[in-house]
Amino acid sequence: MNPKHALVIGGTGMLKDVSLWLTNEGFIVSIIGRSKSKHLDLVNKASHPELINSLMVDYNNHSLLEEGIRDAIGKHGPIALVVSWTPSLPSLEIANNIISEQSRKWKFFQIKGSRRYFNDDSLNVSSSCEHRSIYLGFVIENNHSRWLTNREIAQGVIKSVIDDSKQSIIGRLHPYEKRPKY
């Protein structure tokens, strides 16, 4: 049986541990990120580097994004799972359209910032896509708030993928006025 193919948009930074976890789960993981050094770091940390397909693409460059996703599908087969941290709806729509052409049924875990929970732009996805929303909140410790760490985010995203909930929140979103300042 061929391994399942996953796409992680933003998979060399905040989602690095998610990318590594997916390879440990046996997925071939196509990872979109801009930094060559971060791609190399990820490959060096992987238990299964042969399962990583690095796509050094800026997701805002739509023609290169489309080319990269099509190339990944051509080499590794249809994409069964997408995990994405990007605010760019046009980029996500491109990914949705390309993946839906090739995949009968697939899951899309869209990671969103806390503001999007209260004022969300909805993404139109194809009928073959099972869309999931993961909202990133904050943590309150000793009466002070802070943003989630990359590790907390990755652990929460992994739990959300395992639980397969339509909507999940990592950290907390309320009280909104307690959100950390940037």
TrEMBL record:
It comes from the Bacteria. This is Short-chain dehydrogenase. It comes from Terrihalobacillus insolitus. The lineage of its organism: Bacteria, Bacillati, Bacillota, Bacilli, Bacillales.
